[in-house]
Design brief:
This protein has 467 residues and is an alpha+beta fold. The protein folds into 3 domains: 9-188, no CATH class; 226-319, Helix Hairpins (Orthogonal Bundle), CATH 1.10.287; 323-465, Heat Shock Protein 90, CATH 3.30.565.10. The chain has 12 helices and 13 strands. The strands form 3 sheets. Strands 1, 2, 3, 4, 5 and 6 form a 6-stranded mixed sheet that branches. A 5-stranded mixed sheet has the order 8-10-11-13-12. Strands 7-9 form a two-stranded antiparallel ribbon. Helix 9 (329-342) packs across helix 10. It starts with 8 loop residues before the first helix and ends with a strand.
Amino acid sequence: MKRLWPRSLVGQLLLIVALMLLLAQGINSFLLYRGAQNQNLVEASTSAVARIAFGLERQASDRRFPRIATNRTRRWSQLKYGTEPAVSDEMKRLPDLEMRAGQAFANMGIGLSDIRAASTRRLSSDMTGHVVGSSRGEWRNGPINRSMGDRSAPVETKGFVIVSVQLTDGQWVSIASAVRGRTPLLVRTLLFQTITIYLLMLIPLILLGRYISRPLKSLTANAKSFQPGVTEPLAEQGPPDTRELIHAFNDMGSRVTNMINEKDVMLGAIGHDLRTPLAALRVRVENVEDPTDRERMIAGIEDMDKTLDDILSLARLGRSREQAEPMDIRSLVETVVDEFTDLGHEIGYQRGEKQIATIRETLIRRALRNLIGNAVLYGEVADISVEKSGDKLMIYVDDDGPGIAEDKIASMFEPFSRGETSRNRATGGSGLGLTLARAIARDHGGDIVLTNRENGGLRAMLMLPAG
């Protein structure tokens, strides 16, 4: 069901309108069908009433020759005379037709004691010779009627209407009239009506939907690719509501750009104001005579400087001036691995075939350094591997450390959150490494996932779009 349901707003609107039109047309077709059925019953009963009235009138006018008149009337009118009505209790009575027939006989001045009308699909053997309307198909297809331009139309008998009237002397007069089936004209009319309604309703709605959806698609694409200070304002087009939405989006983009510009100015000032006294403090610390105290002070100053650098890098991530370029991920990973190997760390890595991804090299290099740095910090050995799955590149950084509790994995990406509770950079870092690495990955359209390995240790998976 979800596959059949459109994802776009315009598609859902068109589908709902189409379904409502189909439902309305279905109800209309049902009503027309019922109306055609009632009309066929009325036509059949009218023929029966007319034939009874004609027979009774003919009988009354020829009373001077009772035997000859009665026989002639009976032969021509096909009326059935008897002491019992032809309408039995098992048949479906038609009260509306009985009322209309009574009014018709009253208007013609024919007095009757009782009137009964019913519908049936099959006639009893005693009524097969008292039927009118069964030869209408032959008349329609006759040479005279065809010569007048009427095409042959096969008539299917769907049933019969039986009308029985009781005369004042107690005698019952009955006759059956054939009920015609639906003609192909009704079906063709309904099909033509349905197609016309759909064309008149859906074509304008499709055009209107395209008129609305085009600017919305442009707005969606603009929002997905939005970069403060880079993305151009979107042209206002479409209906008034859509124009107002685009105008509001452009205003929002301008405000976001201004806020980020102000933030960058503020961060630049903070970086300058903090690094200047740190540099002066570093010069003064060099004059400390005690080497132990001097090394601790220098380590503290470097700790503050690196923490400040992490904070500024995280804050300026979305404003990197470096252009994304295609490059070999395996070669980049090998370069970072060599840096740690030169420092004496044990890292396993097997370079395979080239894998290209469009990245900002400096940022991805920093993310890899953070992940590998955590691996060698908490585990003695790190193992790096690169795999491609579909349109994604996965860089796995595995270690043999203690891992992380499952309920704490999500919180490890929060700023200043660390697996090691101390604030010593040598044992736990600043707590911004994973935060910065994941921000870099998501800025490239990827992500970072942490999972505990079955045999112990932690796996950090850096996902990047391939190509």
